[in-house]
């Protein structure tokens, strides 16, 4: 290993830890139930803004998987989602009206909360439109996965974000609060992902899916990253680098096997392409707080696309995704 | 009392208590060894919770680490305690706190009562076991291992290398033939007593203390000195993965465990409520005497290890990304790359698809778009025909295409007009079947009848590109199956190459081809090539076409003359 490079990464990690520590001042505690967190509990971290419509199903889904406590940051919602979240018995909520972009897209706030509360816990970091699927998730809770990874001395778990879309135009998938978004947006692209390795941080960089072909075909380098490492046995030394795409120390990014074998991995089903997407894209493009100044969102506002094709697959369960090679059981049986 | 149980416990004490109650209810006394590392308060609570059971005893405690001698000491202490308290035991079953009896304990007692002299213990010599961790098999008995593999890996490795370097070898005690096997055994009381009371016990102990992973070799070796009948298998269903870590059973394994008909399984996930609520379960009627049969579980876990170590060839994903120089098969199955044939024959793609049943694409790497079979904008897996998207990562595009269509043979046309970025990957791929008619790109130029100086320039460019490609195909790094013929050679006997292509695409020997595609009209090609030569270009990849080709009888009438043999 190149010592200079490794030292620079260390400095980078420290800098982000300090930055996150300073950003703690932007957070105001709304509801603190962290006293209820027990050793071994599984924690979920998320930031949201005006996502009230998504929250009920989000809580349902992750409670069923066995999340014990939600630690959430409400970024200045005006739709009542903050109050709804604060009233949940297993939620601790912070709020901030500071800029999402200035807080590294919310990562600074979460890094601070993670250093403070997640040390020694399995921590799941997701967006409220991302739904974690892992091998045997229909029969084994997250704690089973965490225990097994512990026994295997594995500290991080890799996924690919899978964009789900409806069969008709995106606007026709009318979402109702509390329901399963994948009842309508249940189609996906199975085999058009492009992967390269980031030599510096050692993570894989995955692009592709319907977003790349429908919105970024002429500028593929700008297509959004789909590699995510959402499930980590947290230590207060750790910090995510860019969303949950990369993490430091960089050894945690080695969630893939390089000798031909398959490590155990999962999928984040992404419930982006439903009817609230069009309005949201327009708002976010105007706000320009997202990655690349909301450039991605500006592209989405262009029309109301049909992403479906005869080659799309309809979602069934994790075993289907495993068979298609979108995730792997590895040696977990 | 016929069967006594030794139970080693270090975690999930509530589940251990549950298991102990099953054993006691089934009429087996239990001696429990609780790891010294369990906190005193927890230990006291655990002992208290079992206070109502007079046949449960607790033995001297040792601090146990994975693969250390302390585990053997714990077993010895518990065994001695058990034999002292219940001297008439016929069999002793070694279990752990995460073991769960699958069948009623009386079934096990009946089974053992019918085999009073048999010692059930997996015990094989090192030459015969494939599953050693860390690559040490023979040497685990001839070197010394004072350092922990888990916690002091560097010291451990260093000390092993040091001993290997100086050629150090321990002497194995007389009579002892090292055997190893699963830690979980069921021995007769007589055999256990004989091992514990062996006059040379201290000699053996001194030796096994410094052997690596003694808990898998101490009893396994010594049983060979004292037993009258060793049955080398474990009655406990317990599988290990490639890291030497036990596979864990969850609620969804219920049917698998039931079918295994094993008496005890380990390791059960402590929170597998369904398993703890369901087992032990009585076998119905005749099944009561079923022999344990763990083969289904064996298969599942063997597959899991294979998935982890070998993976699915040709799959690139978030948890499988082989270094390209490591893997010879980069794709999921054989595919054909056809260079030049589409120029030589008219309607070649359609003919090939009809003849072989394979999926035949046009120029997948054409400069303007990927010409998928059917020419749709998208193809299997959602691959796009957009050339910019494809050329962003062309090798990944091809690997995806082959993965997405696994089970059907893919073929595509290729040529020097196409993106060349895949050439090295395809050449190195053992799955690629590459057939080249070199110089065939000349035919469309010849037909184009454009400004001659433009044609000459284009011919030189294409020849240069194809020449570079052929250099790759001839390099020593090439693993693909490659056949190259110049256009001139090819037109003399086109059936030879076509037959080979068709045969390898349908993965079977085809009957001799009868329906053949129509060859382009090459009348005048010889003169065209001569014109190029006259202009100073040297079309060497096309081969030696006579300038007076028009007068060559074999090509005068290109309507299937080559069928006549």
Walk me through what this model shows.
The complex is a heterodimer of chains A (333) and B (565). Chain A has nine helices and 15 strands. Chain A is of the alpha/beta class and 333 residues long. Chain A has one domain: Spore Coat Polysaccharide Biosynthesis Protein SpsA, Chain A (Alpha-Beta Complex). In chain A, strand 9 and strand 10 (204-208) form a beta hairpin. In chain A, helix 1 (3-23) packs across helix 4 (107-117). The longest helix of chain A is centred in the first third of the chain and has 21 residues, at 3-23. Chain B has 565 residues and is of the alpha/beta class. Chain B contains 22 helices and 21 strands. Chain B starts with a strand and ends in a 9-residue tail after the last helix. In chain B, strand 11 (236-237), helix 9 (254-260) and strand 12 (264-265) form a beta-alpha-beta unit. Chain B has two domains: 3-309, Alpha-Beta Complex (Spore Coat Polysaccharide Biosynthesis Protein SpsA, Chain A), CATH 3.90.550; 335-563. The chains are: A alpha/beta (333), B alpha/beta (565). The interface between A and B is large, with 60 and 52 residues.
Please outline what is shown here.
With 333 residues, chain A is of the alpha/beta class.
Which keywords apply here?
heterodimer; A: 333 residues; alpha/beta; Spore Coat Polysaccharide Biosynthesis Protein SpsA, Chain A; 9-stranded mixed sheet; 9 helices; 27% helix; B: 565 residues; 2 domains; 5-stranded mixed sheet; 5-stranded parallel sheet; 22 helices; elongated; disordered C terminus; glycoprotein (chain B)
Number of strands of chain B: 21
Number of helices of chain A: 9
Percent range of helical residues of chain A: 25-40%
> Rg of chain A to the nearest angstrom?
19 Å
CATH-defined fold name of chain A: Spore Coat Polysaccharide Biosynthesis Protein SpsA, Chain A
Largest interface: A-B, 60 and 52 residues
Q: Tally of extended strands of chain A?
A: 15
What's the helix-strand series of chain A?
Answer: HEEHEHEHEEHEEEEHEEEEHHEH
Task: From the 3D structure, determine the CATH topology of the largest domain in chain B.
Answer: Spore Coat Polysaccharide Biosynthesis Protein SpsA, Chain A
What amount of the residues of chain A lies in strands?
15-25%
